[in-house]
Each structure stands twice: as C-alpha cells, then as structure tokens.
Design brief:
The complex is a heterodimer of chains A (410) and B (337).
Chain A lengths: L73 H26 L13 H8 L7 E3 L5 H5 L5 H9 L31 H15 L6 E6 L6 H13 L3 E7 L2 E2 L2 E2 L21 E5 L3 H16 L5 E6 L20 H4 L5 H11 L5 H24 L24 H10 L2
Parallel strand pairs in A: 1-2, 2-3, 3-7, 6-7
Antiparallel strand pairs in A: 4-5
Chain B lengths: L5 H15 L3 E5 L15 H5 L4 E3 L4 H14 L2 E5 L10 H8 L2 H4 L9 E6 L14 H5 L5 E3 L4 H13 L4 E6 L39 E4 L4 E5 L2 H13 L3 E5 L2 E3 L3 H11 L2 E8 L4 H13 L8 E5 L9 H4 L3 H13 L1
Parallel strand pairs in B: 1-2, 1-3, 3-4, 4-6, 5-6, 8-9, 8-11, 11-12
Antiparallel strand pairs in B: 5-10, 7-9
Helix pairs in contact in B: 1-7, 3-4, 8-12, 9-10
Classes of the chains: A alpha/beta (410), B alpha/beta (337).
The complex binds thiamine diphosphate (TPP) and magnesium ion (MG).
Thiamine diphosphate (TPP) sits at the interface of chains A and B.
Keywords (chain B): Oxidoreductase
InterPro entries (chain B): THDP-binding, Transketo_C/PFOR_II, Transketolase-like_Pyr-bd, Transketolase_C
Cofactor (chain B): thiamine diphosphate
Amino acid sequence: MAERIPLSLHVPEPAVRPGGRPDFQYLSIPRAGAVRRPPVDVPAHEIHDLAYSIIRVLNREGEAVGPWDPGLGVEAMKAGLRAMLKTRAFDARMMMAQRQGKTSFYMPSTGEEAVACGFQTALEKGDMNFPTYRQQGLLIAQDWPLVDMMCQVFSNERDRLMGRQLPVLYSAKEAGFFSVSGNLTTQFVQAVGWAMASAISGDTRIAAAWVGEGSTAESDFHAALVFASVYRPPVILNVVNNQWAISAFQGIAGGESATFAARAHGYGIPSLRVDGNDFLAVHAASSWAAERARRNLGATLIEWVTYRAGAHSTSDDPSRYRPKEESDAWPLGDPIERLKNHLIALGAWSEERQTQLRAEIEDEVLAAAREAEGYGTLHDGPKPSSAAMFEGVYKEMPRHLREQRQEAGV
Amino acid sequence: MPRRTMVEAIRDALDVMMARDPRVVVFGEDVGYFGGVFRCTEGLQRKYGASRCFDAPISETGIIGVAVGMGAYGLRPVAEIQFADYMYPGYDQIVSEAARLRYRSAGEFTAPMVVRMPCGGGIFGGQTHSQSPEALFTHVAGLKTVIPSNPHDAKGLLIAAIEDDDPVIFLEPKRVYNGPFNGHHDQPIVPWARHPLGETPDGHYSIPLGQAAVRREGAAVTVLAYGTMVHVAEAAAEETGVDAEIIDLRSLVPLDVEAIERSVMKTGRCVILHEATRTSGFGAELSAQVQERCFHHLEAPILRVTGWDTPYPHAQEWDYFPGPDRVGRALRAVLED
Ligand SMILES: Cc1ncc(C[n+]2csc(CCOP(=O)(O)OP(=O)(O)O)c2C)c(N)n1
Ligand SMILES: [Mg+2]
C-alpha cells in the first residue's frame, strides 16, 4: 500500500504585497518582433505557441520591428496618440469630479489606453463592441463627444440614459458601443450571439466581446467560447489582462496554471497573446482578427497583456493590496510614452509638440467638463426627470406602473 | 459592553466561529488578503491562514457550488457574494442544489452553508449595487433567509446561521453597515457607537432564526419591517406621532408568525415595508399571512410601502427609496379607515 500524505490546499499568492519590491518575473517577455505572423486562415492548432508568447512591435529604442509591424502611417499614429492622451485626460478629470462630489463613482482606464484606442482602429461603422466599464477608449478614439459621456457620468438632465445607469456604464449604439452591464461577463456571450445574427442574416458586420482577466472565471466566458467554437461567428473575443481584479491578482483567475489566451485551445479557437501597451501591436493583432472575422473564418481570442495603473474605481485603494511602486515597475511601460517615443524616433514628433498637444487636450477636456456641468451634476443643477424612472421598463407602461407613478406624484 | 458597527459585528461573528470550529471556512471575491470590499473579513486570513479564508475567482456559481460540495463533505462554508445583485450566476446552485440536497438524498447529504451578501440601496449604487432579492430566496423550499437590521442582531444571527444545519441566505443591508440609516439622506447618520443596538457582547451568543423583535411598542398599527426599513419605520413613527408597533422580522424564513399575530390582533391594523419591488415581493406573503390569521381583527386594509416596480435607478435614488415620508403617509392612511 502506498503511503498517503495529508493533502493541503493551494491558494495562489502574488509575488509581493505592500511593502515588498515589485516583481514581474512571472511574466516572460520576448523581444519585440520575435513572434511570427501566420496567415489569417491558419488552423488553431498550428499557433498554440502564440498563446504563450507576447506579440510586440515597438522595441526599447522606439523602433517598430518584426512581422507584426502594421506599417501604420504617421497621421494614423498621431491620431492614436491623441486618442490615448484624451482618454487619460478624460479619466483624470472625471476622477477629480468624483472627488469633488459631482458624481457618485468613476472607473479609470489609466495605463490600458492602447488596448481600446488601438482596437477601435480595426473596426468599421456598423460593427458592434460589447465593452466592459474600462473601454471608454473605444468611444474616445472615434471622437465621440466628451460632453455626452460626461453627462452620463454626472447623471444630469442631458444624460442620454436618463439618470438610470451607474456612471461609466455608457450606451452608444451609433458608435457601435453596446449598453454596458454592471454584471460581469454577461455580455461576452451576447457578442457571440450578435455575431451569429450577422452570419444568419448574411451581413458583413462583426462583433467584439470584452472581458477582464478576472471575469474570465464566470461561466458566461466559457459559454461564449463554446458557441464561438461551434458556430464560428465573426467575433473577436478580447480578454484584457491588466493583472488585477480589484484586489485579486491574475493568479486567482487561474493565470498561474495557463495563460488566458490558452483558454481558447480547448475550443479550437485561434488565439493570440499581445503586448497591450504597444499601440502598433494592438492595431496589428486586432486587424488580423478582424480580417479573419470578415473572411468568415470565425472567432479569434486575444489576450491583451497590460497593467491597471490606477485604482479599480473611486471606491478602491490599491495601496492596501499591492506595492505602490508596482505600476512604475511594469515591464511593458506606458502606452502613451511608447508611441510618442516611436514618433520621435521617426523624426515626426518632439517632446515640445507632445507637451503642447497634452495642454490642448487638457483644455478641450476642461471645456467639455464645464459645459457638461452646466447641464447639472449628480447633486446639483438640472436633473433627469423623476418620471423617467417609470418609463422604459416596458415598451408600453402597464397599469400598475402608471398607478405607482401617480402615487409617487411625479 | 463593546460597541461595534455592523461590519465589525459580522467580522466578530466569523472570528468567533472560526476560532471555535475548525470546519468553518470563509471565502469569496476579494475576501482573503484584502478582507472584502466592505471589510467584513478583514484580518481573518492573517489569523486563520489562507486555507480557511481565501479569495475566490469571480464566479458566483463556482463560489456557491464549491460551498455545497464543502458542506456535503462536512465543513461549514461561509461564502460571500460581493453584492446581492451578483448572485444570479449562482442562483441555480442555490435553488436546485443547496436547497434540495437534504430532501433529494433523504438526508444522506446536506449543505450546511451560509451565503452572505450585502443588499439594498441608499449608496447611489445604481441597478447593480442596490437590489433586495430576498423574495427570490424565500420562495425556495429548503432555504432559510435572514436579514438583520443592526450590529447586535447581525452577530447573533450570523452565528446561528453558521451553526444551522441547513443552507442560510444571510442578507446584509449595506446602508446600515455603519449606522442606523433612517431614510433621511440629507441628515448626518448616527454612528452605531451611539446606538443601543451597536452593543454586541464579546464571544459567542446566538439569536435563534425565526424570532422577530419588537423595536417599538404601540397600540394603533403594526408595522412589519426588516433591514434598513426598520429604521425608516422608527423615523416615520416618531415624525407622525402615530402610535405604531414596529416589528423587526430579522428572519423571513422561518417566520415568526406568532409575533405578527400577537401584534396585529392588538392593533387591528398593519403596514408592511420593504425596499424590494412590490409585485410578488415578500410583503405579499406577509399580507396573506396577516389576512389568513387576523382577518377578523383587521379594521383597515393592509398597506404595503415598497420600492417601485422598476429597476433601481441611479440619479433618482431618493425618488425610488421608500423613505420616511412615504411610510408616514401610509401610517396616517391606515388609521383613517
Ligand atoms: C457578476 C459580478 N460579480 C462581481 C462583480 C463585482 N466586480 C466588479 S469589477 C470586479 C473585478 C473585475 O476584474 P477584471 O475582470 O479583471 O476587470 P478589471 O476591473 O481589471 O478591468 C468585480 C469582482 C460584478 N460587477 N459582477
Ligand atoms: Mg483585471
């Protein structure tokens, strides 16, 4: 009889906690340009290695190198830089507005701007994103009016969602931006359904699903993968791995045992793992996956390797669970700095122009905030109507709601 | 006697039970190192180790499903769902599994477990941080559903829930975590440190599930309430001067029907309060119970004051929340009949 040892439970722990020295040794980072670029019709099983590497284009010298270099023109790169700067300035302004009591809550995307801003460049009008709360860059990269977004954050009289939704849970159909749910991962599978509908209808539009690495634990993620595997609809399955899910490091979502990109392998879905702080790599990988979708080759999963540089939300204090310096030690750097350095290396940009652009954008954001505040903030000024609370529960207001509205006297 | 906030009282109950009973394990999203987004499990991982207090992946069906398995093995899992609004992915595990395991296996397997979840509105949390889903649990045979309104009860009820051999849903009205919020959102809140029900004895004590408490004695009308609405009822009675008897149900299943009967037979009038939406809410069950048991003593129709039948809005929070003015109007109305 073999001897039995007492069992014990494995509970993943991050390498360091507050007070410790930041340590990203768990992340092995290949040189920029090192990962091959297969043709878009490659069978999933021939690119399993791509789920365990990291596709990168921008190297430390600010050069674009390797087969994934999309050869993007200078103007397109400047537009990307502008979108990322604007997203960062927007977040900073809204964080401040929350601290000033102008709204209840906010969630920044600081440090992850390249993912949404870069991804949007691969989509066309008519395509549909099913975003999480941290993809404001999808809207900003399309020059969606900041005032409109701010009015939602302030829940004011001009809020297109009539004050009903928590700040940042935008909805903008015209911008291909599906109504964001507060319940995690529910929309990941809905994106698959939208893409199936496009295929059923013989349409040419594609969908993009979004989820954080922590939320891949939800069953809806796995349901999405099985449907995407079975019906091969035109959908891009985005997993934003920003290393943290509130206070839980990526190991609590299973990141110790396999990459999030590798989740696709069991379903036979082609999968890429990409440097999410490299605007050019984001653009290139998104375009690769979008082309697969448009050519009816089916779904692609992409894990974007990035870092949540800010707090989870205005209700969170990350210094309680991770070292304060961790963000500065993040080995993939800052997405804005990296694209800026590339443009400078090309001779198309300078520090002075960067400073000037940042100032211009900050002015633009401030002016937008002033305008939006003029339409009211959560506790001050014009508000959405109280009656709006009873509308839109159903297409036609049923009798019991009419009676309740009357009782409420609104 | 030591005073605790409701958060501290819950943490203390977990601490007391983890110290007494090695079968008690505590887990949920952000529950381990961080101590929970509302801090209810702070310090427990350090004290009892990571195999007894740990972070769970973001999967409510996983959290509740593994709790069923642990309970069946013989542990006493206490799972936290970060907000009641996020329990739906785990609902099948609660309804089809935890609630029925004893029955379908003829007692061979059971699921002694507690699922804690903050519920209720009042924090500008919008539709996904404000819901009161108690009726979705009380409707399920095999579950017990508990909802304290203050630190003293929270500790005693949570200990009783952990010691209970059946699955217990433990709803925590988050708006009263730090003080007895009475619906007057424009007034500063009294901290639990200055409220008699902030007094929570140290060590072990339990409050049996299924015993209501009379919060205020009165002769004119019985008010049935639980959670935050107990404090709203107190404010309304105070402000209207109506001689209301306020019953804090504390446990919805099992329900203290004797306490309800006793009071309504005395007052002949009844107003029922909850934050949850009205249609098929727990108030409908209470109203039916009162009608069935006290019909001949009733002098006026039973009234309900509840959340409106809409999703919980963000900006219109105080139009939605059934505050002391609405409750006060109902108290007056029920006396006019
Ligand atoms: C079903 C559900 N469970 C729990 C939550 C609470 N919650 C909100 S965000 C979050 C962390 C998500 O982390 P991740 O998926 O990594 O996304 P990130 O915030 O990093 O962008 C949690 C647990 C929720 N909103 N919905
Ligand atoms: Mg994350």
